[in-house]
Design brief:
heterodimer; A: 3-stranded antiparallel beta sheet; 10 strands; B: mainly beta; 7-stranded mixed beta sheet; 53% strand
Chain lengths: 109, 119
């Protein structure tokens, strides 16, 4: 099983600041199959990034993804109030084919 | 715009069977997509349960495989989940979601439904 470890567990920042979230895989993941989701309380996860660096439809360009192999990063260039949420990475291709990271909580400082 | 909606009992007794259905609208379940289930225990992270293709092919999480059955009804544009021998550990919000066959991500999600296992 490919284990995804996200860090930090909680990130405390202020609106306008830059956020950098990490996702590290226990084995190499194809860049084509690394995604990021945003989840707000009481809502379903929303796809932000697919293929490690491609923004999903309607996602603002302040969200960016990068990385390859075992190290991936989600960057939010300038935090807006609505960006404070929990973020999950997800990989496809191992066995089991789908695993999620444990999540990073982005909270207002 | 594809939409998914989960339905089913919100309370299941221990040792019973959890049954949920996901209705797809705005698109055909017979498209080149896998239709999946993901769950989230209260206050915890996401766990992939499994997914099914419109042809009936399935891929299950090995940790749940022995208790899991998925099915698809193309005439109703629905797919379903049955999880047997449930315990309190199966209490979670259950989401249905779509994964395009050639892709790795889930692009459309249902709103989720809370299923509680309790006597």
């Amino acid at each position: 099983e490919i284990v995804l470890t996200q860090s930090p567990g909680t990130l405390s920042l202020s609106p306008g600041e830059r956020a950098t979230l990490s996702c590290r895989a226990s084995q190499s993941v194809s860049s084509s199959f690394l995604a990021w989701y945003q989840q707000k309380p009481g809502q379903a996860p929303r796809l932000l990034i697919y293929g490690a660096s491609n923004r999903a439809t309607g996602i603002p360009d302040r969200f960016g993804g990068s990385g390859s192999g075992t190290d991936f990063t989600l960057t939010i260039s300038r935090l807006e109030p609505e960006d404070f949420a929990v973020y999950y990475c997800q990989q496809y291709g191992g066995s089991p084919p789908i695993t999620f990271g444990q999540g990073t909580r982005l909270e207002i400082k | 715009q594809v939409q998914l909606q989960e339905s089913g009992p919100g309370l299941v007794k221990p040792s019973g069977t959890l049954s949920l259905t996901c209705t797809v609208s705005g698109g055909s379940i017979s498209s080149s997509s896998w239709w999946g289930w993901i769950r989230q225990p209260p206050g915890k992270g996401l766990e992939w349960i499994g997914y099914i293709y419109y042809s009936g092919s399935t891929n299950y999480n090995p940790s749940l495989k022995s208790r899991l059955t998925m099915s698809v009804d193309t005439s109703k544009n629905q797919f379903s989940l049955k999880l047997s021998s449930v315990t309190a550990l199966d209490t979670a919000v259950y989401y249905c979601a779509r994964k395009i066959a050639a892709a790795g991500e889930f692009d459309y999600w249902g709103q989720g439904t809370l299923v509680t296992v309790s006597s």
